[in-house]
Amino acid sequence: IKYVCLLEKDYVGFATLPNQVHRKSVKKGFDFTLMVAGESGLGKSTLVNSLFLTDLHKDRKLLNAEERISQTVEIMKHTVDIEEKGVKLKLTIVDTPGFGDAVNNTECWRAVTDYIDQQFEHYFRDESGLNRKNIQDNRVHCCLYFIPPFGHGLRPVDIEFMKALQDKVNVVPLIAKADCLTPSEIKKLKERLREEIDKYGIKIYQFPDCDSDEDEEFKRQDKELKWRTRPTATS
């Protein structure tokens, strides 16, 4: 008995699965949730708008000094659909207005960690259900934490916040408004921050090593990114 394959390709097997999965993923699109945290006035919204060429805070109300002092930490979500070269991305920005603005910032990160834990629980519940076809992944994938440029290192609230999140999400600390510092000041501040991060055992995101079979251009970009994040590098 002879069987004839009606597919255009001569070979059909598990080796073609990566391409099939890739095409399916590209067609479906990807979900990415980015959290931004830091006190008001550090340029969080400006950075996000510049990165994704969109305005996520069109209707934002600016608070006066008295309102900011009494404000509690809120969780605000903004979702935008982005498409680049046929690849769709559903981007969710999680903002944390009120963080670090109060006179007493004791455990001001509690609302943030509770939100992250809730998203993990929702995703686990959906994955454990019977209908897993249209699961929404609202887990926080990365947190950009903005550090003021005017201090002399990490503040207690910075240390406690990053340590509270380090085992839940990829934490990427940023020096906010670094353009107001000279290159030598940026270098010194980066060195001091890296020393304190190591001193307090804070786990921040590290660029992974690229595979040996990656192309040379990707290896070059990976090497350059790692060099830029060194304590002695400037940005």
Roughly what percent helix? 25-40%
Query: Which sequence of strands runs across the widest sheet?
Result: 2-3-1-4-5
Describe the sheet with the most strands. 5 strands, mixed
Q: Given the helix and strand composition, which structural class is it? A: alpha/beta
Q: What's the total count of β strands?
A: 5
From the alpha carbons, calculate the radius of gyration and give it in angstroms.
22 Å
| Count of helical regions | 7
Elements, N to C (H/E): HEHHEEHEHEHH
The backbone outline, from C-alpha atoms, is: globular
Distance between the termini: 68 Å
- State which percent range the strand residues make up: 15-25%
* Overall mean confidence score, pLDDT: 77
Low-confidence sequence ranges: 1-8, 231-235
Topology:
Layout: H1 17-28, E1 30-37, H2 44-52, H3 65-70, E2 76-84, E3 87-95, H4 110-127, E4 142-147, H5 156-165, E5 170-175, H6 183-199, H7 216-228
Parallel strand pairs: 1-3, 1-4, 4-5
Antiparallel strand pairs: 2-3
Short note summarizing the structure:
The protein has 235 residues and is α/β, with parallel strands linked by helices.
Structure commentary:
This protein is of the alpha/beta class and 235 residues long. 36% of the residues lie in helices and 16% in strands. It contains seven helices and five strands; from the N terminus they run αβααββαβαβαα. A five-stranded mixed beta sheet has the order 2-3-1-4-5, with helices on both faces. The N and C termini lie far apart (68 Å). 17% of the residues are buried. The model is unreliable at 1-8 and 231-235 (pLDDT under 50). This is Septin 5b. InterPro entries: G_SEPTIN_dom, P-loop_NTPase, Septin. The record marks 150 as: Important for dimerization.
